Amino acid sequence: MVTGSVAVPQAGVMEGWGRFQTLPCYVAASQVLGVACVVLTGVWMGHYHGGYAWDSSQQQFNVHPLCMVMGIVFLYGDGVLVYRVFRNESKRSVKILHALLHMMALVISIVGLVAVFDVHNKAGFPNMTSLHSWCGMLTFILFLIQWLLGLGFFLFPWASAVLRRWYLPLHVFFGLVLLAMAVGSSLMGIAEKAIFSGLPPFAPEEVLTNMLGLLLVCFGVLVGYVVTREEFRRPPNPEEEALSVHFNTLTEDSRPSTP
Questions:
Q1: pLDDT (tens digit, 9 = 90+) per residue, 88-134?
Q2: What residues make up the domain containing 58?
Q3: What's the CATH code of the domain at 232?
Q4: Checking CA distances to 30, which of 20, 46, 56, 249 falls within 20 to 30 Å?
């Protein structure tokens, strides 16, 4: 009986330690993938398409894919991950970081959109004609709406606690949907650029763009996996539960609805 009573807590401790060790590995892998996506995009546009400029030329167009991958994919994904990375920090600090990362993603994405629209307008090329442009613009608009609603509901809360608890699952769900949409739009843009470039089969540029696409998919899948694993959620904090806009009150018999 004594042996059994000691073995169970030890097993629990080892299991918890294993989970703690696994999360940093997943997060580190996501950062390697995200940085690799940004670097490959930079190399693609810099080496194969003449570099970068802001003069309404092809070099200005090159700013668009770099900014979109950096902003609405990589930084956006990191903003989604902060609730898992900083699991033991104060919730308000994590919310501010979450909002700031998404604001950076938003600003960089705006630069990327301005770059491509300006090039098209100066060259007399029509805007918003491809499926990539439609999906990309829809993703950006929904991202902007999501960010504004997040500020209003959670960082500078004006809504009632009931309304915030109703909206939180939607906020979390659409956060992952938007990441999937951003990756999908990026893949369509990569394919569109490769087709317009008329690349021969297995050309070095084509191989690079295919690798970039695979890395983008892996980044999105890994972020989604980390965010949806139950054991990686923020541990309950009784003091924050009583005050946080993300939790049900302690008198309610329901699971805290934290991201």
A1: 888 889 999 999 999 999 999 999 999 999 999 999 999 999 999 99
A2: 36-243
A3: 1.20.120.1770
A4: 46
Which of 13-27, 77-91, 113-127, 162-176 shows the lowest per-residue confidence on average (mean pLDDT)?
13-27
Selected residue with higher pLDDT from 245 and 29: 29
CA distance 170 to 118: 35
DSSP 153: I
Q: Read out DSSP for 58-127?
A: HHHHTHHHHHHIIIIIIIHHHHHHHHHHTTTS-HHHHHHHHHHHHHHHHHHHHHHHHHHHHHHHHHTPPS
In angstroms, the CA 11 to CA 6 distance is 9
Residue 250 lies in a domain: no
Helix axes 76-85, 204-228, angle to 10 degrees: 30
Element (H, E) at 191: helix 161-197
